[in-house]
């Protein structure tokens, strides 16, 4: 069995380790100079110590191409002559989250209801939703001016993230509207969620939650889940995020109050989870 060292023990490294074909390869260790401990019972060593295990393959599990080049140089300087696989070559090209969305679209063809997204930003995912479901109503919720002060205060107080007022503020509703291929069925609700959903009465078949922060995510779980049709699919972006820890906490707090959700982590690089409405 060939052996692997995964360089990078952050969110990308953790996802990479799970994605590796464990019937053909054995991961000896993570190499990371900034953290220690274990992931999935696999030890995290310094890069140098991990390379001393003499792996057949080193997988560079970072998104940034410049950092990838630096790490490649570093391990070659340390004398590594085996195979090097760089995740950054395909991490933005291949997207398991999109793959799941395409399959989910087929799966929910018999589930009645509209489509919605909370956290639209420039509309990349929203345009995909609109393209995949041309005949369904699409509800899009965002401030279109970035995070709200009230939500950021919770993030700071609870140590969930370092979210800033200016993050994601470089967008506007008109720009998003322009990129939607089937505008007739779409409606944009600009402003603070949950204030913007107050007067809506509908049933949802697929909902995408991508607000990054604890408060709007918890509010969205409370609002959308009772309005989803049985068999409907809820996509929770960043559920396993190192950067936005409030998402997982919002789900945990929702479950504490309402009971366990049928949640499955996708294992993609975004840390997405999906919930099937029972
Ligand atoms: C990561 S971005 C969304 C990315 C988007 N789904 C895409 O496809 O690129 C997060 C968005 O959530 C929005 N957001 C966060 N909290 C919000 C709230 N309480 N109400 C409305 N929008 C919110 C932000 O304005 C930001 O545009």
Keywords:
single chain; 278 residues; alpha/beta; Rossmann fold; 2 domains; 7-stranded mixed β-sheet; 6-stranded mixed β-sheet; 9 helices; 13 strands; 23% strand; elongated; binds S-adenosylmethionine; SAM-dependent_MTases_sf; methyltransferase; methyltransferase activity; TylF_MeTrfase
Task: Provide a quick synopsis of the model.
The chain folds into two domains: 2-89, NAD(P)-binding Rossmann-like Domain (Rossmann fold, 3-Layer(aba) Sandwich), CATH 3.40.50; 96-276, 3-Layer(aba) Sandwich (Rossmann fold), CATH 3.40.50.150. Helix content is 32%, strand content 23%.
CATH topology of the largest domain: Rossmann fold
Which CATH architecture of the largest domain? 3-Layer(aba) Sandwich
Radius of gyration: 21 Å
- Beta content: 15-25%
- H-E string: EHEEEHEHEHEHEHHEEHEHEE
The biggest sheet amounts to: 7 strands, mixed
Summed up, the helix count is 9
Pfam families: TylF
GO molecular function: methyltransferase activity
GO biological process, one term: methylation
Keywords: Methyltransferase, Transferase
Give a written overview of the molecule:
By secondary structure, the protein is of the alpha/beta class. It folds into 2 domains: 2-89, 3-Layer(aba) Sandwich (Rossmann fold), CATH 3.40.50.720; 96-276, 3-Layer(aba) Sandwich (Rossmann fold). It contains 9 helices and 13 strands. The protein has helices at 11-19, 47-51, 65-77, 96-107, 124-132, 149-158, 173-179, 214-224, 246-258; strands at residues 2-7, 25-31, 37-39, 42-45, 57-60, 83-86, 114-118, 138-142, 186-190, 204-209, 228-236, 263-265, 273-276. The protein has a 7-stranded mixed β-sheet, with helices on both faces. Strands 3-4-2-1-5-6 form a 6-stranded mixed β-sheet, sandwiched between helices. β5, α3 and β6 (83-86) form a beta-alpha-beta unit. The longest helix has 13 residues, at 65-77. It is elongated, with a radius of gyration of 21 Å. S-adenosylmethionine is lined by residues 119-122, 124-125, 141-143, 146-148, 151, 168, 192-193, 210-213, 216.
